[in-house]
């Protein structure tokens, strides 16, 4: 596949997602807005490129997206190297996010799990820890959603087997949600 065909594939898949995922994307936006209005925190996690997306989106809420507004509570669980390496060393990599959810999360918070496979053990354990703590969960997935699809409150599954296309659209969906929330809080309706 050449570069042009990659872009065509991405645009066609984005159009499919815009049609088929419009309702769950809006639902995720409502969940974020309600969480932040109640004083809750958004948490983000993922592995590899999905970890980068998690960090990117958390920063959009804390700093700003398109508009100047107050900072919003968000944290990427992928950024504290001491917590990650201690957790991996002492309990195993499967627990690096779950331990942070247990320590930092509170009832009414919202956890975003980014995964192209939906089968990463550390994300499955994070979802379980969130459920135990009564923290809501949204997963950005692909390739059918894997086991994680059934373990979260809301699953947004990109209909592709291609990791790159899934990650590109996970970030685009994250930005679409952020745009809605950004507009709401910038207009003085909250935060």
Poorly predicted runs of 5 or more residues: none
State the CATH topology: Rossmann fold
Beta-strand content? 5-15%
Number of strands: 5
CATH architecture: 3-Layer(aba) Sandwich
Number of helices: 7
Report the C-alpha radius of gyration, rounded.
Answer: 16 Å
Largest sheet: 5 strands, parallel
Order of helices and strands: HHEHEHHEHEEH
CATH superfamily: Glucose-6-phosphate isomerase like protein, domain 1
Overall pLDDT level = 95
Helix/strand/pairing category:
alpha/beta
Task: Count structural domains.
Answer: 1
Q: For the largest sheet, list the strands in their spatial order.
A: 2-1-3-4-5
- The outline comes out as globular
How much helicity do the residues have?
40-55%
Q: Could you explain the architecture of this structure?
A:
- The structure is a single chain.
- The chain is α/β, with parallel strands linked by helices and 191 residues long.
- The protein has one domain (3-186): Glucose-6-phosphate isomerase like protein, domain 1 (Rossmann fold), CATH 3.40.50.
- It is built from 7 helices and 5 strands; from the N terminus they run H-H-E-H-E-H-H-E-H-E-E-H.
- It has helices at 3-20, 22-37, 49-62, 81-90, 96-104, 121-132, 163-186; strands at 42-46, 74-76, 110-114, 136-142, 154-158.
- A 5-stranded parallel sheet has the order 2-1-3-4-5, with helices on both faces.
- Helix 3 links the parallel strand 1 (42-46) and strand 2 (74-76).
- Helix 2 packs across helix 7, helix 3 runs parallel beside helix 7 (163-186) and helix 5 runs parallel beside helix 6.
- The longest helix has 24 residues, at 163-186.
């Amino acid at each position: 596949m050449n570069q042009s065909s990659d872009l065509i594939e991405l645009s066609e898949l984005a159009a499919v997602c815009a049609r088929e995922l419009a309702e769950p994307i809006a639902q995720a936006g409502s969940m974020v807005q309600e969480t932040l209005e109640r004083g809750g925190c958004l948490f983000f996690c993922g592995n590899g490129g999905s970890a980068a997306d998690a960090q990117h989106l958390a920063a959009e809420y804390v700093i700003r997206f398109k508009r100047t507004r107050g900072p919003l509570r968000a944290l990427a669980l992928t950024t504290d190297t001491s917590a990650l390496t201690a957790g991996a060393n002492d309990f195993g990599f499967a627990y690096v996010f779950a331990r942070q959810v247990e320590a930092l999360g509170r009832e009414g918070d919202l956890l975003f799990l980014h995964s192209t496979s939906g089968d990463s053990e550390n994300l499955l354990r994070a979802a379980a820890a969130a459920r135990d703590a009564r923290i809501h969960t949204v997963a950005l997935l692909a390739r059918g959603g894997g086991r994680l699809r059934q373990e979260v409150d809301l699953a947004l599954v990109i209909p592709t087997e291609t990791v790159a296309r899934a990650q590109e659209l996970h970030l685009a969906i994250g930005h679409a949600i952020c745009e809605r929330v950004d507009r709401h809080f910038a207009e003085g309706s909250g935060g």
